[in-house]
Model the fold of this input.
Amino acid sequence: MILLAPVAVGLAAVGVPIVLMYVLKLRRREHMVSSTLLWRRAIDDVQANAPWQRLRPNLLLLLQLLALCALVLALAGPAYTHAQTFNGDLVVIIDESYGMQAHDVAPSRFAVALARARVLAGQLGSGNVMSVIAMSSLPRPVIAESSDQAAIIRAIDGLRVGVTSPNFLTALGEAASLARSGESTRVVVMTSHDSGITGLPMAVPFPVEIDRIGGRLRDLGITAISAGVSGVHTEALVRVSNFGARAAHSDLELYADGQLADVRPVDVPPGQERNLFWTHLPTGLRQLRAHLSLTDDFAGDKTAWAIVGSGKVRRVLLVSRASAAAEYFLQTALALDPSVRLAMVHTSGQRVRLLSLIHI
Amino acid sequence: MSTDQEALFGFDGAFLRKLERLALMNRRPLPGPSMGPRRSPRHGASVEFADFRDYADGDDFRRIDWNAYARLDRLFLRLYSAEEMTTVTIFLDRSRSMDFGEPSKALVSAQLAAIFSFIALHNYDRVAIAGWADKIHSYLPAQSGKATIPAVWRHIAAMPPAGKARTDAAALYEHGRYGHGPGLSIVLSDLLTDSDWRSGLLALQRGGSEVSVVQVLAREELEPDVRGDWKLVDAESGAEVEVTISPRVIRRYQEELTAHVEAIKVFCRRHGMAFLQVPTHISITDAVIGSLRTVGILA
Done:
């Protein structure tokens, strides 16, 4: 038997103060006596003014503890499991898209998916192989047809959650290509509860289990921010969307060049969005930052930045000897500024001093 | 004694006739204010010889023992015991703790006071009644003569309780300290007090009284039958004691009760006082009278 929400077992600790209340404080009836003189002396050494009493059978206490046990069990979600002795290959598709960042389950949906994938790796039968596909907007296999459990687990542990959307169709195609002919193959998809993946977009010759992790989200996030100059003022737009199932309220803080410029309350019904405008921000600003003070199941969409376009074109020369990946990120970041005209020079095989000859 | 008076304390004629044959016992001669049936330490003119002493100037020639002078050639004076009337003061505890018991300790104490006063007045003694708690709340000055028995009984029966006052032996101390002369003092109380009852009793004795202590206790004090979790409230002080009454606590209570009673007994024995414990649930007529004779309060 396993517990689906083992954290709820912590509620059982409430039983301790309940019992303490019975030990420390007994409900006593009053009884008038002619004198308490001898009673005081009698209990002086028996009880020694102890603040506790001996715990004796008490029906009310028993009922309260039973009620607590029932509550804890209900919240913990006990479930029976049985070892799945699936005799065949396994392809695990792990969603590493943005929705897996939610931490409505502890520690996060993505961490839970990795843990379950590790369990599956541990159950792999001899003679069978396992493949793992990381599902982002560009799904890719991170380990293919391996029977080495240690290597599989290392590959699983190497996955990182991203900010893209899941591309289930491509991932399923990858899985189909990894299924060995003549062998029984099972595909397990670990995705977030609200990823939109509920059925199969294509027919496949193997069983597919979709493991949707998490529950109903609480997510109010900034989905757009832009800024520009209009006349002598700077204008800004921030869009706040509620992806959760309940109405959400937060304060939105706007920082201009690091200084708090404005705070506005924002209420957004579930599934809707709100646009907030600023039309009289000072001119000459370089950067705006918007921040939602709310804490919910997503932390990654609470802050957004915008570069204020000045209207002037700036030419930037990117001189790089770094790796292609680092160059790619720099290039992408600079491209976000509409006023930048980017030129690139690779220094491999040339001396850096030649740069002085380049006219910007 | 009229039927009405007998009904005050539930005594019948046969019981009163028994009482007429009893007397309060004094363990040493007591000087009294007037002539009566008791021996006095003062030597007087009765026929009971007490002692000799040397003649001194001014002595009554008539009391010189001339036979002794003839034999010894010295003048001796013959001394005789005086027969005197003594005062019996009954101290009746009227604090709130006396309202407990079935019958109440207050009622049993009043019955005992009625018995003592009846015996005393029947034997030509004087009887004073003092109701006390934290002080002497009511006081009936000494009465004498059988004819005053109904009035004394009515006073005892109508004696008001002392309200919320706590038992405080300082009341006895104050009474004894000012000295009301020699006599018998009978203290009727539960003595469930943490006040200095020893000083109170000693003060009465030093004031010239022969002291007898009758401790009246209810069955619930001797054998508590409560069990479980209780907040015990002191009827006099209002003090609260939270206690889980288990057999072990009951045993400790009875040990404390025994120690408390034993302390009173030892104190009384050491100072020549009579002591008797009277439970309220036993028959006062025969059992108590027998015990009072045994401990030397009644003769």
Remarks:
- Chain A has seven helices and 17 strands.
